[in-house]
Amino acid sequence: MLSSNIPSPTITYSVRPRHLTIKNTVIFSMKATLVLVLLACVLALAYGDLVCGTNYCKQHPCTTRLASTSCRSPSLYRPNHAGKCACCPACVTLLGEGAACKTYSKELGETPSAVCREPLKCLTGVCTKVTPRR
Q1: Tens digit of each residue's pLDDT (9 = 90 or more) over 81-125
Q2: Residue 19 clears pLDDT 70, i.e. is over it
Q3: Which of 31, 45, 92, 134 is deepest in the core (most CB within 10 A)?
Q4: Closest Cα to residue 110, out of 90, 130, 128?
Q5: φ, ψ for residue 104 (rounded to 5)?
Q6: What is d(CA 32, CA 116) in angstroms, rounded to the nearest whole number?
Q7: 50 pLDDT more than 70
């Protein structure tokens, strides 16, 4: 028989509590900011699609009529340029490279009377030639 006076081996675990450090707080803040930015981007895309879906102009036809012959030079007639979601016709001046321009939101019904000529894009308020990425 074994003697009961022999001590049994004891295993102890040391669990260190996680302390909130400045580094952990900064990392958490960065992750939270990234999630919020991504969420904002997704909502912006969804809002644009929800407001101006593929059938918006069919469901909300333009009440303003404009004859295609009513535009004076240098303006050109565009059948889908004005009003909310660009459902209405308008006379538009096409701007050349280097001209001052303004970006606009068709969802809000903003209608510029002048836009950059294709393939130019309005970047930082100037019509700029953008080379496609490969």
Answers
A1: 888 888 899 999 999 999 999 988 776 777 788 999 989 999 999
A2: no
A3: 92
A4: 90
A5: -145, 165
A6: 38
A7: no
Sequence-ordered list of residues with C-beta below 8 angstroms from that of 74, at least 6 positions apart, any chain: 93, 94
Tokens of 30: 């960065």
CB 112 within 8 A of CB 78: no
Q: Report CA torsion sign: 100, 105, 106, 108.
A: negative
DSSP state at residue 34 = H
Whether 70 is in a domain gets the answer yes
**CA-to-CA distance for 112 and 101, rounded, in angstroms?**
9
Domain assignment of residue 62, yes or no: yes
Q: Tell if the pTM clears 0.85, that is, is over it.
A: no
- Asked if residue 110 is part of any domain, the answer here is yes
Distance of alpha carbon 118 from alpha carbon 34, whole angstroms: 35
Separation of alpha carbons 134 and 130, rounded Å: 12
Domain count, the chain: 1
Instruction: Please report where in the chains the tokens 């130019």 appear, as a residue.
Output: 120
